[in-house]
Amino acid sequence: MKLRLPILVVLALAAQATLHAQDKPKISNGPKVLVFPPGTKQPQATAEASEKPLASPAGVPDGIAQLVAVFFGSLEKMDVDQAYAILTKGSKIAEKPEELKQLKTKTQQAIELFGVIAGYDLVEAKSVGNRLVRATYASHGKVYPLRWRFYFYKPEDTWRLIDMRVDDKLSGMFDEPEEAKNPKTDLP
Fold it and tell me: What CATH number should be reported for the domain holding residue 132?
């Protein structure tokens, strides 16, 4: 019994010392970390801290994804006018009727040549900062796919199309360099 009492006292003192050591702030030169126990409310992030890159390989910002979905949905229904009305709304492209008419004509010709569009896939999305995005898509024509490159800018709160390009260069979709044609071996 006499031996147990000193052991109990030592254990009690050790437990009390451990509790006091936990109460004292530790000085560290390492990074500061906040830990929130489960169920506690985290502080609101500031607008500056909440900004993150808008486009990643996995996707594009919602506003762009919606515009592109309506665009391709209209093309699938063969409604080229509606497709471009939605895509170019509020953009400088819409203010140039001759260029817009030419885009619509070329798109109609592409659909006739490569087949009716029956879907599309995001190939790549790349952002420069938080307000400029290039989104590359492949449309699935009945005969052949097409590569569509859309350039969007967000000056305030709405994404606007500022440029677009369409072609049938498959090697560009696979990040392969363009090959020079060899007139002796390549077909025309």
Answer: 3.10.450.50
pTM of the full predicted structure?
A: 0.63
Contact 146, 119 (CB under 8 A): no
Q: What is the span of the domain harbouring residue 66? A: 54-173
In whole angstroms, what is the distance from residue 76 CA to residue 14 CA? 75
Q: How far is CA 95 from the centre of its chain?
A: 28
Residue 42 located in a structural domain: no
CA–CA separation, 22 vs 168, rounded Å? 66
The total of structural domains in the chain comes to 1
DSSP single-letter state for residue 59: B
Calpha distance 175→28 (Å, rounded): 47
Are the CB atoms for 169 and 185 separated by under 8 Å?
A: no
Domain annotation covers residue 158: yes
Note the pLDDT tens digit of each residue in 28-80: 555 545 454 555 454 444 443 334 434 334 578 989 999 999 999 999 999 99
DSSP 3-state helix, strand, coil percentages of the chain (rounded to 5)? 40, 20, 40
